[in-house]
From TrEMBL:
Lineage, top ranks: Bacteria, Pseudomonadati, Pseudomonadota, Alphaproteobacteria, Hyphomicrobiales
GO terms assigned for molecular function: argininosuccinate synthase activity; ATP binding
Gene Ontology CC, one term: cytoplasm
Pathway(s) of this molecule: Amino-acid biosynthesis; L-arginine biosynthesis; L-arginine from L-ornithine and carbamoyl phosphate: step 2/3
Compartments in which it is found: Cytoplasm
Record: residues binding L-aspartate: 122, 126-127
PANTHER family found in the cross-reference section: ARGININOSUCCINATE SYNTHASE
Gene: argG
Keyword Ligase: yes
Protein name: Argininosuccinate synthase
SUPFAM superfamilies linked to this entry: Adenine nucleotide alpha hydrolases-like (SSF52402), Argininosuccinate synthetase, C-terminal domain (SSF69864)
């Protein structure tokens, strides 16, 4: 693309050095009007400085939107109904935020008459895919600008030199190489790069922002009760909370008890392996509690099918296919399974551990008369098991006879 090919672009803007450079680069390279969009997803940072910096750079249309409730209600909770974990461990905190940011960018582009959108993801990572798949799913003809795949800057020094030449303020700690990069929202924090690049080196304690060390957590356990309705948490210790408020409360409880740390080497969608340090305190509690309530409300076949489909669902989220038909199809199946996943789970939080200690539901499938060892309360005839076992053993006995004949 060339100057004049884009008239107006909506930029996903954090107010940090990189997106501030991108903002100016768009003005210089494309000569276009830039609209900034900053999403409040609960990252814990003051967002007004982003507005002031955008104003200083001559931006007239500035959007700073509080998306915390929508983020948890419409993205995090549906994902947790699936118990989604990428490669069996990662709770997808960064992955699930990108489709919401991109969705809002497209909405703003339509509202202001922009013909392009822009993100600050690099050409090595997953985020470029997540942003752009969402853009194209929601606005097929949108023009996408990805500066890291277009510009000629070869180093951090070149970026800083551009910033200085264009009077872009640079925080003192940005004049050298950052020790690691951070992405954060209400669900998690993610740290990667630099001091974390060697997978053999233990992450320094200062990397962790959302949790205290399990060794420093209280010696006394914290016990809480989480109430669910149709697979979503709605209350803690009897107090009903909005989705964002509930996750915030779980984050506080998880942080205080050293819960939710993960040191992971994962397979990026673009093909390389990367090492990340994740902190998902509230999400870690929620996952265990949700599985706890499912254990008494889901039929075996339904529960096992969900577990079989979960890796596929998690991959779709990780790869950026939130708005794909296959993810929506899986979501419909998952949501159907949650119709009677209601009740209360009691969990104990202790030095990095989440331990389910009780669960109850008006829709429980757990029948004490069936499982009891007490005589006189038995609703199960032990003799029925003999025929059941013989039928299941039929093919194994047939195979065994053939093997014995072969070995003779």
């Amino acid at each position: 693309m060339s100057a004049g090919s884009v008239k107006k672009v909506v930029l996903a803007y954090s107010g940090g050095l990189d997106t501030s450079i991108i903002l100016k680069w768009l003005q210089v390279t494309y000569g276009c009007e830039v609209v900034t969009f900053t999403a409040d997803l609960g990252q814990g940072e003051e967002l007004e400085p982003a507005r002031k910096k955008a104003e200083m750079l001559g931006i007239k249309e500035i959007f700073i939107d509080d998306l915390r409730e929508e983020f948890v209600r419409d993205f995090v909770f549906p994902m947790f109904r699936a118990n989604a974990q990428y490669e069996g461990l990662y709770l997808l905190g960064t992955s699930i935020a990108r489709p919401l940011i991109a969705k809002r960018q497209i909405e703003i582009a339509r509202a202001v008459g922009a013909d392009a959108v822009c993100h600050g993801a690099t050409g090595k990572g997953n985020d470029q895919v997540r942003f752009e798949l969402t853009y194209y799913a929601l606005q097929p003809d949108i023009t996408v600008i990805a500066p890291w795949r277009e510009w000629d800057f070869k180093s951090r020094e070149a970026l800083i030199d551009f910033a200085e030449k264009n009077q872009i303020p640079i925080a003192k700690d940005k004049r050298g190489e950052a020790p690691f990069s951070v992405d954060a929202n209400l669900l998690h924090s993610s740290s990667e790069g630099k001091v974390l690049e060697d997978p053999w080196i233990t992450p320094p304690e200062y990397v962790h922002m959302r949790t205290i060390s399990p060794e420093d957590a209280p010696d006394k356990a914290t016990e809480i009760e989480i109430e669910f309705e149709k697979g979503d948490p709605v209350a803690i210790d009897g107090e009903r909370l909005s989705p964002a408020a509930l996750l915030t409360r779980l984050n506080e409880l998880g942080k205080a008890n050293g819960i939710g740390r993960l040191d992971l080497v994962e397979n990026r969608y673009v093909g390389m392996k990367s090492r990340g340090v994740y902190e998902t305190p509230g999400g870690t509690i929620l996952l265990q509690a949700h599985r706890g309530i499912e254990s008494i409300t889901l039929d075996r076949g339904a529960g096992h099918l969900k577990d079989e489909l979960m890796p596929r669902y998690a991959e779709l989220v990780y790869y950026g296919f939130w708005y794909s038909p296959e993810r929506e199809m899986l979501q419909a199946l998952i949501d159907k399974s949650q119709e009677m996943v209601s009740g209360t789970v009691r969990v104990k939080l202790y030095k990095g551990n989440v331990i389910v200690t009780g669960r109850k539901s008006p829709y429980s499938l757990y029948d004490q008369d069936l499982v009891t060892f007490e005589e006189g309360k038995v609703a199960y005839d032990h003799r029925d098991a003999a025929g059941f076992i013989k039928l299941n053993a039929l093919r194994l006995r047939t195979l065994g006879k053939r093997r014995m004949k072969f070995e003779q």
